[in-house]
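Checklist before submission:
- one chain only
- standard amino acids only
- sequence pasted in full

Submission:
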Amino acid sequence: MKFSHDFQLLLFAFHSKNQLTVAIMEFVFDAWYVAGWSRNFRHELVPQTILEQNLVFFRQSDDKLVALEDRCPHRLLPLSKGNLVGDNVECGYHGMTFDGNGKCVRIPAQDNLPPSAYVDTYPVEERHGIVWVWMGIKEKADPNLIFNMDEFKDASWHKHLGDALHIEAHYLNVAENLVDPAHVSFVHPTTLGSAASQDVPVEVSTTDDPIAAWRWIRNAPPVGFFQKFGSFSGNVDRWHYYYLHLPSTAVIDFGSAASDLQLKEDERHKGLRIFAIHFVTPVTRDYTIDHWMHMRNAAVGNDDASKQIDDLFRIAFEEDKEILEAIHKEEQRQQTRAPIRIAIDRAPLVYRKRIKDLVNLGSQQR
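Returned file contents:
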């Protein structure tokens, strides 16, 4: 059967709109997401895709960082394909120019600047060298909602911004992996875990935000990470506390202490303690960026220690990436039955339920 050209276009438009609607229904828009580290944004056009929305970032001459819709309202060419002229963005197609507020300030050979000649803007905040962008309704962009930890301002903790891990997987799979201590024994047997933890039960708290999951492994050899970063001569007690803040920021509090100290759960500060922080940013339904950093209560001010930890983390996170991308591929294939759920899935299941509720709430308000 053949269709007219107009009908084919209609079908394409319906399909595209439907696909976009499906995608939007999967994301929490009214939230702050990490776009990257401040050091990566200069006086140049930097395109980013977040929640399937294309943005372009640039610094103005006063060092203020702005984010605009990366699409000229004329012929839809991405503005990132154009030029930064002073503090304005010039479209690379016909020269329409927009300021940092999204207002059109120039149309070549035309004095009239119609009100419809504008691009959307996105609220941006910078904290502790981290760039946050609000993707939802602008009036709800409260900077007080930006993720924070007291240790960010504590001089006894070393803060170090790491890398951006690019993962071809859905962000929900990436995020729920970060509230799942049970996988560490199997995915990271030479870095963050070992066989000693395989049968240690995971405790979970789903009452509040963040969702938490944790366990202690007592009187066991130090894992590979603490064999290389640490000076333990015997067995240790080690812990993994996973905190998942909605919609997709995770803090993993892990560390070790000599077993003869017999630390209590609220005495983790007496051991070698590290916070691995993951800012999970959905790019598309099939692509996620995990911006990760760490804070530690040891080797403060030691850049060599930071490099050593980065190297260890890169090994471990590549192990996660391999697993998550393989799962994502399988999810795209036809399935004859739903995946089963077991006891360790309690925290991830609650997380997905809360995300679904936030998505539904957001869809009613959009």
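Reviewer check: The helical segments are 5-24, 171-177, 184-187, 224-228, 303-332, 346-365.
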